[in-house]
């Protein structure tokens, strides 16, 4: 802390809201923002006066991330006393994430808990009598964020990080061993071993970075499988969501032989709908292959929509419920939504029967378009509450992501150095930097760790 | 018999004591060196060598500031090696083998030639204290000697206990008495003390060894030296030799394990992990069937030989039998057996950055008394304690080196901030910014500082300035001068480096991997510049390093600057941590105990988290 890095963080509560405010503070905040802000009136943000607001888009190269309002405050007349940019964007966590990650890639650092306030205090924006309050805020926020971080370290992330840190530490120790103990009677690892170790570290780092939870899932579109009996109206529902005729629609059961995917943006988030052939038991060979594919597709899905025909519920309710249970036990981690289609054909008694027997069932009519909006918000809710995670998703915390990204950068520098025959003491500069970034996740690492590692593993000393 | 009142009294005449006395006397303080034996001033108690990796850099730093260790080492060297020459320049580490007797003699002569310095031989039994201030020392004869500041450099002598097998006896070094009284007085005063252990190998008669069975280890063919002043380069050198232990040797040693004080629990204190005894090595690394043994001559003329790598406290008969089975040692005759020694130390977290104790004003500790090991570590602390004792009594600003300025800075900051559980030795990996802390630039880093406090002399500063100006000019030459493809391409071609298509600045070409100063000197314009400006080897080396590693040096400078911002946020001496409820309990306790001087130092204390640091920053205001 207390470096002249430019820092960034969400200033509004996390989660979905109508709008969110992202705050950037520090020397580079205006210059960096100017590079990624296209004003609708063509103004250059860097040349604008303090305390002005500008409408435009945040862009990453040619890609437009969101339409935003940017407020510009020049230090010392800002919240923190530094140059500050506040970006008011749409409230989707996806958009927030995309914008924050863009700035992190361009050199910002995630702010620590309470850091904006700390700067505000240090720059004399607050009275000394407020010191106690600020200090409490920092320690309590730190506590809270620490707990969140621990909660987020599920799915083996902490194990993975621990292993990776050990690998790096091991690597660093081997390098240090060559330096401080070159006179000792020890066999030093050869360069190929080093390179192999580095590639392994690089691979794991990349995988962890790629797994970066919601952002990544969302980037590729969240896969949603639509499952149900043939002719239940899957294709119609898809069309209703898509608002265009994409899938085959006919009255003959089982026309959708192939899975069809399409992407639709709901509230700024991409969903990839996978229309499946349903899971009705069948003797038909062609359709049987379709069912096989259905299960394969469900395997990759993050959300399952189980579609039933409302009017059939009174007669086949038991077998529907059986199938729902089957899906739930086969995919316990994947959120499942029961959608009762064709509600327009149902009377009030039928509606209440479904509602009573299936909790959270969504009644809609794909054909008439009623209830489709409710389904959309249900899907958004999964994203915004962070319920979407598959087993591969390990990194969920922006700070962790940030640290891993920086660590990878350093590891790649070491690899370059290795290729170019740079000597160990210079490689060590980059390795230490990488270990430092790991320390941001796991807690500090001191050089004593390296020495301890060396003494434990090698016979040192005359 | 004595001056009515000395400025500085130094207790002990080892590496720490000798540097302390020289520094304070040279700066103008009336100084008294009290030691139990004037015969053993500057004694090398363990191996007859100075320098080595990280330690060599420290000796260069001592020399750059104006201490004597570098000069003494050069005058008594019998072999010189620049270690780690195949690595980057931050790793190059000078090491010398020394003539043990000449080393001590040169120290004695150097101190005798130092103005303002008196000597007295007697054991110091206690300190004279008034309130919380030391005012002198009391000797074993009951003589009170008054002094404004006292530097304790007792080495391994405080309640020293020597172990050889199941025998144990009091002593500070083989054949020398232990010192008593000081520990007891200081613990009564409120100091914490602890015990540490170290050991030394047997020394033998070189005439009884068969060197033809060993591997010769000569010095460098172009030996360099330690001092930046004009000490003489070695023209002749003595060889060292190397041999190995064997499974048979290990078995013989194991026979004595039941009588080993290391294993039967008689020695309880902790020894250095990086300097283990031979029994420790074969015990902990049982799968290794041989260990190196270095046979080091003790001087130009003496037949005595130091058996490096065979440090042991096993019974002398076991030592003898085992050593006899080492290749080349079949007919070995012992001069002295190896032994282990336990001694008192004072956890160094009780010190300030000046090495003055927090509890007792005017009292300074330096060397093994602070839990360190090594001549170089001791000497550098002695130097800093001597300087600061002088500065304090003359009411001048303390002299503190930062972690990005010197290994000495790293050493002292580590000691007082983290303390040490085992004898502390310097390693390059302890320094965050070792690319900046090179042996080639210790003068550039430290001589101006040494001059400013009045220790480094004018001639030292002038030499350093000449080196600086010449290398700066040479670097500018490389920046400003272009080289044509037809001149440089043959060289690049021979190095498998991609050719240039048009003229390019020399600096750029020189920065490429594999291109060295020797290659650049093949260019007429470069060699002409060298001749015209009369540039010596040192300037060429300095220029080469600064051009070739400029990227890395810049990166480390930037990182260091970030740290220094926190270094500038001072914490008042009287700061009350107990009020700060937002600090974690552990942090509050540790901060209260260590009492860091700056936020940066606070951040290095284990148990103090980044959020604790933020809280501190808040309370310190801006």
Give a description of the structure.
The complex is a heterodimer of chains A (462) and B (622). Chain A contains 15 helices and 13 strands. Chain A is of the alpha/beta class and 462 residues long. Chain A folds into three domains: 7-152, 2-Layer Sandwich (Gyrase A, domain 2), CATH 3.30.1360.120; 157-211 and 395-457, Four Helix Bundle (Hemerythrin (Met), subunit A); 217-384, 3-Layer(aba) Sandwich (Rossmann fold). In chain A, α6 runs antiparallel to α13. Chain B folds into four domains: 6-198 and 343-452, FAD/NAD(P)-binding domain (3-Layer(bba) Sandwich); 203-338, Beta Barrel (Elongation Factor Tu (Ef-tu), domain 3); 458-556, Orthogonal Bundle (Arc Repressor Mutant, subunit A), CATH 1.10.10; 568-619, GidA associated domain, C-terminal subdomain (DNA polymerase, domain 1, Orthogonal Bundle), CATH 1.10.150. In chain B, the strands form five sheets. In chain B, strands 1, 2, 6, 7, 8, 9 and 20 form a seven-stranded mixed sheet that branches. Chain B is globular. Chain B starts with 5 loop residues before the first strand and ends with a helix. The chains are: A alpha/beta (462), B alpha+beta (622). The interface between A and B is large, with 51 and 62 residues.
């Amino acid at each position: 802390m207390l470096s002249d890095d430019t820092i960034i963080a969400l200033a509004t509560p996390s989660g979905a809201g109508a709008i969110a405010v992202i705050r950037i503070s520090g020397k580079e905040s205006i210059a960096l923002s100017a590079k990624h802000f296209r004003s609708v009136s063509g103004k250059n943000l860097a040349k604008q006066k303090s305390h002005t607001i500008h409408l435009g888009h945040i862009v990453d190269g040619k890609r437009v991330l969101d339409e935003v309002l940017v407020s510009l405050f020049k230090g010392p007349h800002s919240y923190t006393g530094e140059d500050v940019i506040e970006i008011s964007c749409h409230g989707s966590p996806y958009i927030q994430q995309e914008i924050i990650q863009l700035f992190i890639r361009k050199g910002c650092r995630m702010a620590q808990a309470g850091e904006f306030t700390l700067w505000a205090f240090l720059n004399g924006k607050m009275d000394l009598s407020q010191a106690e309050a600020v200090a409490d805020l920092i320690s309590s926020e730190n506590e809270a964020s620490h707990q969140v971080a621990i909660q987020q370290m599920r799915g083996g992330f902490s194990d993975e990080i621990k292993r990776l840190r050990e690998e790096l530490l091991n690597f660093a120790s081997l390098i240090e061993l060559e330096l401080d103990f070159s006179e000792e009677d020890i066999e030093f690892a050869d360069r190929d071993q080093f390179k192999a170790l580095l590639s392994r570290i690089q691979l794991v780092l990349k995988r962890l970075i790629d797994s970066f939870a919601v952002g990544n899932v969302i980037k590729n579109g969240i896969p949603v499988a639509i499952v149900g009996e043939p002719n239940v109206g899957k294709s119609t529902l898809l069309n209703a969501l898509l608002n265009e005729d994409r899938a085959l629609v006919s009255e003959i059961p089982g026309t959708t032989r192939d899975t069809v995917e399409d992407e639709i943006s709901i509230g700024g988030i991409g969903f990839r709908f996978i229309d499946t052939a349903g899971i009705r038991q069948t003797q038909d060979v062609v359709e049987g292959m379709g069912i096989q594919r259905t299960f394969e597709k469900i395997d990759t899905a993050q959300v399952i929509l189980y579609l039933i025909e409302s009017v059939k519920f009174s007669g086949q309710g038991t077998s529907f419920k059986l199938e729902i249970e089957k899906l739930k036990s086969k995919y316990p981690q994947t959120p499942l939504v029961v959608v009762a289609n064709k509600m327009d054909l149902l009377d009030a008694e039928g509606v209440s029967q479904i509602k009573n027997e299936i909790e959270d069932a969504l009644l809609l009519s794909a054909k008439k378009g009623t209830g489709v909006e409710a389904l959309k918000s249900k899907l958004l809710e999964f994203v915004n509450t962070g319920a979407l995670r598959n087993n591969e998703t390990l990194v969920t915390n922006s700070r962790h992501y940030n640290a891993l990204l920086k660590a990878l950068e350093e590891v790649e520098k070491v690899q370059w150095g290795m290729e170019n025959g740079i000597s160990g003491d210079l490689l060590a500069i980059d390795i230490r930097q990488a270990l430092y970034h790991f320390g941001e996740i796991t807690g500090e690492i001191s050089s004593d760790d390296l020495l301890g590692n060396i003494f434990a593993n090698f016979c040192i000393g005359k | 018999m004595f001056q009515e009142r000395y400025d500085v009294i130094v207790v002990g005449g080892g590496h720490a004591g000798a540097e302390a006395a020289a520094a304070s006397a040279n700066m103008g303080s009336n100084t008294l060196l009290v030691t139990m034996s004037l015969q053993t001033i500057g004694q090398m108690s363990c191996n007859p060598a100075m320098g080595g990796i990280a330690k060599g850099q420290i000796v260069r730093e001592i020399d750059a500031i104006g201490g004597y260790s570098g000069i003494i080492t050069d005058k008594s060297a019998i072999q010189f090696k620049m270690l780690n020459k195949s690595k980057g320049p931050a790793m190059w580490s000078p090491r010398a083998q020394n003539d043990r007797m000449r080393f001590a003699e040169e120290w004695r002569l150097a101190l005798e030639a130092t103005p303002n310095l008196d000597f007295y031989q007697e054991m110091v039994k206690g300190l004279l204290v008034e309130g919380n201030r030391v005012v002198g020392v009391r000797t074993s004869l009951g003589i009170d000697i008054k002094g404004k500041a006292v530097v304790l450099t007792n080495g391994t002598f405080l309640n020293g206990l020597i172990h050889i097998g199941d025998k144990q006896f009091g002593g500070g070094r083989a054949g020398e008495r232990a010192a008593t009284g000081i520990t007891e007085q200081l613990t009564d005063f409120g100091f914490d003390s602890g015990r540490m252990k170290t050991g030394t190998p047997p020394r033998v008669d070189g005439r009884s060894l068969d060197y033809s069975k060993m591997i010769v280890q000569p010095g460098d063919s172009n030996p360099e030296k330690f001092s930046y002043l004009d000490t003489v380069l070695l023209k002749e050198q003595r060889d060292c030799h190397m041999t190995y232990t064997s499974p048979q040797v290990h078995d013989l040693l194991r026979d004595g394990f039941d009588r080993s004080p290391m294993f039967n629990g008689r020695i309880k204190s902790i020894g250095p992990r990086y300097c283990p005894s031979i029994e420790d090595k074969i015990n902990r690394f049982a799968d290794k069937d041989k260990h190196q043994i270095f046979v080091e001559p003790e001087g130009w003329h003496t037949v005595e030989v130091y058996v490096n790598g065979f440090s042991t406290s096993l019974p002398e008969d076991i030592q003898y039998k085992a050593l006899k089975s080492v290749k080349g040692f079949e007919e070995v005759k012992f001069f002295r057996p190896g032994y282990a020694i336990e001694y008192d130390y004072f956890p160094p977290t009780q010190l300030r950055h000046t090495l003055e104790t927090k509890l007792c004003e005017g009292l300074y500790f330096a060397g093994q008394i602070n839990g360190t090991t090594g001549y170089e570590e001791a000497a550098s602390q002695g130097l800093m304690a001597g300087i600061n004792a002088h500065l304090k009594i003359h009411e001048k600003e303390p002299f503190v080196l930062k972690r990005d300025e010197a290994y000495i800075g790293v050493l002292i900051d580590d000691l007082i901030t983290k303390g040490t559980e085992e004898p502390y030795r310097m390693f390059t990996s302890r320094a965050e910014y070792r690319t900046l802390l090179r042996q080639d630039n210790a003068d550039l880093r430290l001589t101006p500082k040494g001059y400013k406090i009045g220790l480094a002399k004018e001639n030292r500063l002038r030499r350093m300035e000449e080196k600086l100006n010449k290398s700066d000019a040479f670097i500018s030459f490389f920046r400003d001068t272009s080289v044509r493809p037809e001149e440089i391409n043959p060289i690049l071609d021979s190095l498998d480096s991609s050719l240039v298509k048009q003229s390019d600045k020399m600096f750029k070409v020189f920065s490429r991997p594999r291109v060295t100063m020797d290659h650049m000197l093949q260019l007429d314009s470069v060699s002409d510049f060298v001749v015209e400006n009369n540039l010596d080897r040192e300037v060429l080396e300095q220029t080469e390093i600064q051009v070739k590693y400029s990227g890395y040096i810049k990166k480390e400078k930037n990182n260091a600057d970030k740290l220094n911002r926190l270094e500038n946020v001072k914490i008042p001496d009287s700061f009350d941590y107990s009020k700060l409820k937002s600090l974690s309990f552990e942090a509050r306790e540790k901060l209260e105990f260590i009492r860091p001087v700056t936020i940066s130092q606070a951040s290095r204390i284990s148990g103090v988290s980044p959020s604790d640091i933020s809280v501190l920053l808040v309370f310190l205001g801006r």
